[in-house]
Amino acid sequence: MANSADLLNALADKGPMSVVDIAEAISMPRPSVYRLLDALEHVGLVAIRDDGRAQLGTQILHLASASLEGIPEVSAARPAMARLNELTGQTVYLCAVRNQLVTCLDWVKGTKVTLLLLNPGGSLPPHAGATSRAILAWDEELRGSVIKSAPLQELTPHTLTTPEQVEADAAAIRERGFSVSDEDVTIGVAAIGVPLFDARGSLRGALSIAGLRDDVLPYQDEYVVLLKEAANEVSARL
User: Fold this and answer.
1) Which of 47, 103, 109, 160 is most buried, taking the most CB atoms under 10 A from its CB?
2) How many CA atoms lie within 13 Å of 179's alpha carbon, on the beta-carbon side?
């Protein structure tokens, strides 16, 4: 099961791959890769292209759709996310904590997404990115765990890496009610994020608007208003 998951994740992250590339990516002998691909192809999770490379099969779409429908945050947030995308033209993210990482549950692609690192099912460390830092600001237990693991992974020269930076950032985000990611995940990319709470006040995740830096930061005030309105709508649905 672990090998299957590793192979599927590799194809999801990198796209179509040769057997040689898969074997290297998941540290598996080539004969074992061939056997695993054959089994996964049989159930539709993998398809083999004419050039011999493997890619995700169409059965993945059915599983992904069923998985998303079973996540309350996704169904609650989709109408608001679609409206944010329509109003801004930027990519809109819904993220939540899974296994001490901030995972993208859903997104609506903007018109310029080539530089964005995060996609559905992918994760970021809690100290990097607008949704991550919006969550971290209100999740004291997670913040404590992150601080204990310092020095933190540096994705770019702008990533928070020390306990002092994390605490100061969390305090600033709580005070103003939103986070600003300015090239701390990917150079040239910025994002604005807000936390998501349910009707009982429990933290459920975060929403963000992300795109090229020059397309996001000049509109920060406008995007914050739109995000907070969307978050209120989602909260009422949760």
Assistant:
1) 160
2) 34
- What local confidence, expressed as pLDDT, does residue 113 receive? 60
| pLDDT band, residue 194 (cuts 50/70/90) | very high
- The CA-atom distances, in angstroms, between 151 and each of 51, 146, 154, 160, 180 are 44, 9, 9, 9, 21
Neighbours of 16 (CB within 10 A): 15
Q: pLDDT: is 30 or 184 the higher one?
A: 184
- CATH number given to 70-237: 3.30.450.40
Give residue 82's Cα distance to chain centre. 17
Domain 2-63 annotated CATH 1.10.10.10: yes
